[in-house]
Amino acid sequence: MYDVIVVGAGVAGCRIAELIARKGFNVALIEEHADIGTPVQCAGLVSHRLKALLPDLPDSVFLNQVNRAKFFYSSNRPISKPNFELRSKKPVHVIDRAELDKSLFEKARASGAKTKRSTKFTSYRIKEDKIVISTNKGKIESGLLVGADGPNSLVAKKAMLEPPENYLAGVQATIDAATASNEFDADAVELWFGSDITPDFFGWLIPLSPTKARIGLATRQGALNYFKNFLKKRIGTTVKPDVGGRINFGLMENTAAERVMVVGDAACHVKPLSGGGVIYGLIGAAYCANACVKALRAGDFSAGFLKQEYDEKWKRQLQKPIGRGLRYRKILLGSGNRMNLLFNIAGKLRFILESFDMDLL
Ligand SMILES: Cc1cc2nc3c(=O)[nH]c(=O)nc-3n(C[C@H](O)[C@H](O)[C@H](O)COP(=O)(O)OP(=O)(O)OC[C@H]3O[C@@H](n4cnc5c(N)ncnc54)[C@H](O)[C@@H]3O)c2cc1C
What we know:
By secondary structure, the protein is an alpha/beta fold. The protein has a single domain (2-353), classed as FAD/NAD(P)-binding domain (3-Layer(bba) Sandwich). The strands form 2 sheets. Strands 1, 2, 6, 7, 8, 9, 15 and 16 form an 8-stranded mixed β-sheet that branches. An 8-stranded mixed β-sheet has the order 3-5-4-11-12-13-10-14. Helix content is 32%, strand content 28%. It has 9 helices and 16 strands. The longest helix has 31 residues, at 303-333. Flavin-adenine dinucleotide binds at residues 7-13, 30-33, 41-46, 120-121, 148-150, 154, 170, 172, 216, 243, 245, 247, 264-265, 270, 275-278, 281.
């Protein structure tokens, strides 16, 4: 019998498994895919906090660094120059997301976590003194179950921890500079706003090098059509997407049940304004690992104890920024007219905007 079973070997799951194993507990990390890190569902743009949270990541994770963001407001006009540009005070990393997951998976394993690939969680049942987890490979028993199984979390569904209704579908492709009719700067991210690009989010171009970039967008409905139009507008041709996935955002009412916690995208640890979930997922993972250790030491796996030690604690750090992100989202993406106005004044407010912390919006 395990102390903890973690479902999902993404950033959140691998990190929790590592932190719990390092405390000497018996933890299993199960992942439905055979290969860790794929399929990739990420644009790979993360703040300087990644290195602060995980100081010993290998260089292979880091592909590029950007320090400027160019903002475009399209509204059906042809655009050649950005409306305004902001400079980041701290470096922003462009990462190889599959490499990050692989590296965290190896760290979990090296710390003593048992890892099981091609193992899919299907349901669970609570018996008096344990939780019995069903997978495609049979049953496993444990003290606790952690659902780090992403935005379509089955663990959350089974525990009746429902996500908020806000969601977006993201699509992305990798392009060569040679494909693009306009060149891009290797040290600047492009962010494209406007109802013709996407009515409820933004399009992005993230340089990997002077010759390669990721281009994508997210929206609630019709992502592929918007993506095609955006590609035509920005690079003059269409290419097949190589990344797609769901982004949930908002504040979940509860992320803990009897013997169960959810974390990362499964707990909506996502910035509502940018859809970024890597940093919040890692922050959530640290709270979840601490709560697991406390529950195991106290022998208390009740919903009340886990809510107090996990749900309430992570919310003390992330509830405010998530709330702020939701409010800014409404202001920025709520109306075309308002966005037009914001774009007109944003250049003049550059010094204020440049002082914002991208993880706290
Ligand atoms: C298009 C797109 C672009 C994005 N860009 C960025 C970005 O630039 N920066 C950023 O910070 N965030 C970005 N995000 C969000 C980011 O990718 C997620 O927040 C992050 O991956 C969440 O990590 P996680 O560990 O919680 O979940 P995931 O990375 O989704 O990992 C969940 C794991 O659980 C496994 N799993 C699922 N169900 C089961 C099951 N039943 N049994 C066993 N295993 C299971 C999955 O296979 C997966 O490996 C983007 C998302 C999308 C869709």
